[in-house]
Amino acid sequence: MSKSKLKNFLYDHLVPLPPAKSTTAVLTTTVEQDEKENSQYVVATGIDRYDKGDYQFRIDTEVDNVASDSSSTLIPSVYTTRRNLKNRHVQLIGIGGTIGTALFVSIGTSLYEGGPLSLLLSFAIWCIPVFFVTLCTAEMVCFLPTTSPFITLTGILCDEALEFMQGFNFWVLQGALIPFEISGVHTIIEYWNSTHNPGIELGIQLGLYFIISMSAVSYYGETEFWLSIGKVILAAGLMLFTFFTMVGANPHRDAYGFRNWNEPSPMVEYLTTGNLGRFQGFLACLIQASFTIAGPDYVASVAGEIKGEVRKKNLPKAFKQVFFRLTFMFIGGALCVGIVCSSRDSQLISAISESRPGAGSSPYVIAMKNLDIPVLPDIVNALLVLSAFSAGNSYTYCTSRTLYGLAKNGKTPKFLTHCTKNGVPMYCVLISLCWGLLSLLELGTNSSIVLDWIINLVTQCQLLNYFLICSTYCFFYKALKYKGIDRKDLYFRAWYQPYLAILGAICFFSMIFINPYLLYYPSKEYWSLETFLFSFLLLFVDAALYIGYKIIFRTKWRKVSEVNFDKYLKEIEDYEEAYLNSEEYHIDNKDKKQARYWYHRFLNLIVGDDD
Predict the structure, then answer these.
(1) What percent of the chain has pLDDT above 90?
(2) What is residue 601's predicted lDDT score, i.e. its pLDDT?
(3) In angstroms, what CA-CA distances link 97 with 80, 145, 294, 418?
(4) What is the predicted pLDDT for the residue at 218?
(5) Using omega within 30 degrees of 0 as the cis cutoff, is the peptide bond preceding 16 cis?
(6) Per the UniProt record, which residue ranges are transmembrane (predicted)?
(7) What backbone torsions phi and psi does residue 226 show, to the nearest 5 degrees?
(8) What are φ and ψ of residue 59, in 5° steps?
(9) Backbone phi, psi, residue 516, to 5°
(10) Element spanning 353, H or E
């Protein structure tokens, strides 16, 4: 690589610049510019494309036979994030960010505490309020797919102070999950080698997250797409493993069926005896479900960087398909672990008590060892490494884009809106990666305690975020009605609203106080100051941020007559209009008329397509 090319590469990827003053939509394709092209363009138009203060234009040199009419690719380029994520990227990012190691490893603890039936019921029941919040998010985000859409809509519909509070809460939620998954990779690798240096892993992971996050969003999307396919393979493979072994396809030729459901019983006692003990076992499983099962966050977080017909096709399709795929995986996973492993298996109990690393605590791996199946445990552990790494990668992206969205809306310092030439908010990425350093706390002797703290913190943040989304939807519904916008004309219209939003808000608000219920237990055995702080401290911090912002900036709760979508709607409408009139649109759709074979449709059902 020549010095000039290296210089241009470093400039494009490592030099953040402020955005242009105008907020026109940005169509993004990878374009190589040099001084010669720029000088020719200045002669032709009188506009300098390297002038960072005003509008810049570039000519797409990668599209052959560019026409000179309105379909030519004269594309406005500003230093902001770019719409370059395809539909298949979005769908797999939604899966990649939601599924970490909890569905395959931590779920064993819930199996022990509640039994197979309690585990299955809790996961199935918790999917219902998650479905409600998915409907609310999908309708709002498909209407206004901007950066950090559900946070931005809180400011538009309710109060800017509430927007600031929700943005901070979601930023902490995503940021705290980065060290959780980094330490998860460490413990998974310990399954093979317990003497390795954890600091090396930490450095390698943070370095890889930095490289991926600093690449153009299309490269991030492609990377996460393939990493998430590993999770789909792992989830599907474990379900197939469950089916084949339960009907006798195992070295012992033992068709064990649902035997483990009755050993000792479908619902086991936890903390106490009798019906109260079985109820507490179910409650413990429900708390685990509220941590494990996530919904629309990750699809919504990428809304500002999706290309194509965002509102009409890509986002509605992504919300529907991602939710039903995740629901199948979560409920299927909860069913399968209860089939392959008894809740009172001696290996499971010792794995939990000893905090065995990686796949060693997974009910699936314990079942494989009980059946004397070789090699498979190592394959599962390898896929768990990819699963944890992929989840951390998604959290890094969401954390940086949340911070960027807050800065774009004037809630955090302006320099955080500066992006590199390829559309990456570098300062936001660097600040977000600092969360990864907290994983050092989890590498000590009390790592399991720190892990519990983070789980409590994340669960409470997630519940509060879902409560705010459902509440915001009620104001969204009211604003549409006031403005005379018929919901039948929306690209995504949820059922039975606003009743499902109200019901969802009640469920999430109630769960905020149910989650740490052991703190209310009469026995002081379950009380600790740390558990109390990580269960409730952030709620007090959120309240303080809301009140403080309101006092300092004198914000007022918006009346429905003051709600104004125009600025953000114009941005997305300009983008979609420019896209539909561009050469890129014709290239993206040139093969739509070609016949697709059955296996194309099957693959699209599993991983999504580009349309």
Answers:
(1) 30
(2) 58
(3) 23, 19, 9, 25
(4) 87
(5) no
(6) 92-112, 118-144, 202-220, 226-249, 322-340, 379-398, 424-441, 453-477, 498-520, 532-549
(7) -75, -35
(8) -105, 130
(9) -95, 40
(10) helix 346-353
Average pLDDT, integer, range 397-418: 91
Beta strands in 340-483 (DSSP E): none
Helix residue spans in 159-303 (DSSP H): 160-189, 198-214, 217-246, 274-292, 297-301
The DSSP H or E segment spanning 142 is helix 116-143
Helices of type H across 50-115 = 87-98, 107-114
Find the mean pLDDT for residues 494-515. 92
Helix (H) or strand (E) holding 74: strand 74-77
pLDDT tens by residue, 210-222: 999 988 888 999 9
Tell me the helices (H) and strands (E) count for the chain, helix number first.
22, 2
- Write out the DSSP string of 442-488: GGSTTHHHHHHHHHHHHHHHHHHHHHHHHHHHHHHHHHHHHHT--GG
Retrieve residue 197's tokens. 């240096």
Helix or strand (DSSP H, E) at 510? helix 499-514
| pLDDT for 72 | 36
pTM of the model: 0.84
Mean pLDDT taken over the chain: 81
**Residue-level length of the chain:** 611
Assigned CATH class of 87-172+217-372+441-576: mainly alpha
CB 90 within 8 A of CB 97: no
Structure tokens, 441: 């706390």
CA–CA gap between residue 598 and residue 308 (Å, rounded): 25
Cβ atoms of 138 and 296 closer than 8 Å: yes
Dihedral in degrees, nearest 10, Cα atoms 347, 349, 354, 358: 60
Crossing angle of helices 160-189 and 529-553, in 10° steps, is 150
Both tokens assigned to 249: 């396809």
CA pair distance 18, 417, nearest whole angstrom = 7
The residue ranges of every structural domain in the chain are: 87-172+217-372+441-576
Does the CA dihedral 140-132-100-373 come out positive or negative? Answer: negative
Contact 512, 505 (CB under 8 A): no
Per-residue pLDDT at 413 exceeds 70: yes
Is the CB of residue 74 less than 8 Å from the CB of residue 43? no
